[in-house]
Structure formats: structure tokens, C-alpha cells
Amino acid sequence: MKRPVVGIPCDIKLFHAFPFHAVGEKYITALTSGAGALPWLIPSLGDDALLDETLGWLDGILLPGSPSNIQPHLYGGAPSRAGMLHDPGRDASTLPLVVRAVERGLPVLGICRGAQEVNVALGGELYQHVQDEPGYFDHRESSDAPLERQYGPAHHVNLTPGGWLAEWAGSERIEVNSLHQQGVKRLAPGLVVEGVAEDGLVEAFRMDAARGFLLALQWHPEWQYWNNPVSTAIFRAFGDACRSHRDKRLE
Ligand SMILES: N[C@@H](CCC(=O)NCCCC(=O)O)C(=O)O
């Protein structure tokens, strides 16, 4: 049985002054081993015709995290503070990609920046600096700590009773890692909260009306997913949704 093909949009990063289209290996590994999919890197060229052509033979989309931030004018936010990192090429690809994937009923999994992209693409808004918002805590990692600590458990998430995550976790409270400073300010219409941090920040959401699976997470389940039963269940469920899509596509 052929693996479902899952597209991952690339970041555009400069290496030796040349732009490269790149995806972190942990996302590729989680897709290959955790979801049983064939990852397909989508260049972030912002070309609608290319996206449409690519979507025709994909079975799912994984939107990965990134240190870069969505340009705030795309969700009606104030101009960025000096020094904020952006990736306009990725914005120009991922936002239309989410809309088209939902229209076509393709399964979508959004992680960290990817979750923020799902929200913005569907009409939501973001906080640009969660740590500066009254009542919210600092969701950023200590960037000088070893990676094991940066991606280690950071805070709890209260899961929505009856939600997908609560069912997979067998619990209404899980512990997650946390490596972001932006977050959901207003959830887009049609999105349903799956979990919130103890300060009330939305950490996970799904879309019930989507013809395919749509789940977005502010944390990083791809990090050593095999050591965490909820992360393992997330990638298994996403892989199953992509396999169903592939079966229908090949009918
Ligand atoms: N820049 C945004 C999104 C944060 C994010 O996706 N971090 C990922 C870091 C690298 C990785 O593990 O892929 C924000 O700060 O909210």
C-alpha cells in the first residue's frame, strides 16, 4: 500500500547569502515514522498556480513551526517591532495553501507558526507578544538552554472535555513544551478550542466543519514524538486521515 503524500511548506532561509527553501528534520521524521506518510517539501514561491497543481496529488498538509512570524498586516495587526523576523515568501504560500486545503477537504496539521497560519488564513488574529499581554505568562523558551530543556515540558494545557485531544490523552490535562511569543488573540470563525493554557491562551484548536481532519497545536508534538503517547496519537490520527484521503483520491 502506497504511503499518503503530505506536503510541508518550506521556510526561506539565507545560507551564505543565498535563499534556501528548508524544513526542519524533526517534522520530516514525525511525518515519515509517526504518521507513516511520504513528506513532500513545498517551495514557498507564493505561486497560486503551482499550489493548485501540487494540491491535486497531496493527501495532507503539515504546517511546521518556525522562528519567523506572520507579517501582522495579514491579520490587521500593528506594524512589527524592530528586529522581528519575517518570511514573506512563506506567508504568501501558506495562507492560500490553508484555504485551498480546507476547500478540498485535505487533512491539515498546524504546529506552532503553522497553527498561527491556520488561524490567520481563516480570518483570526494574533497577539504579537503574548508575554506583554496582561494576565498571560511568558510562553517563550530559554534560548540559551540545551535543546532537551527548550523542548521539555513547560506548562499544562487543559483539554476540552469530549475533544479529540482529551479522547486520545484519556485525560483533560496534559503537559506540553512551549517555544513561542505569538498566539491566538481571536480564533477564526469555525474553529473550535481543543485546549487552553492555565493563563487562558488557546493552545489547540480543530475545525469540525472541515471535510478533512484539521488540528492546530501551539506546542511541538513532533519533538521526540515517540516518547509521548499524546504526540504519538496525534501523528497516528493525522496519518490515518491522510490515508483515508489517499484511498478516496485513488478510487
Ligand atoms: N515565531 C512564532 C512561531 C514560533 C515557532 O513556530 N517556533 C518554532 C521554533 C523552531 C522549530 O522548532 O521549528 C512565535 O514566536 O510565536
UniProtKB/TrEMBL annotation:
Query: What is the enzyme's class at the highest EC level?
Result: hydrolase
Write out the GO cellular component annotations. Answer: cytosol
What stretches pass through the bilayer? Answer: none
- Pfam families in the record: Peptidase_C26
Q: What pathway does this protein act in?
A: Amine and polyamine degradation; putrescine degradation; 4-aminobutanoate from putrescine: step 4/4
Instruction: Please write the reaction equations for the catalytic activity of this protein.
Output: 4-(gamma-L-glutamylamino)butanoate + H2O = 4-aminobutanoate + L-glutamate
**Record-listed E.C. numbers:** 3.5.1.94
Q: Name one GO biological process term.
A: polyamine catabolic process
Task: Specify the protein name.
Answer: gamma-glutamyl-gamma-aminobutyrate hydrolase
> What is the originating organism of this protein?
Crenobacter luteus
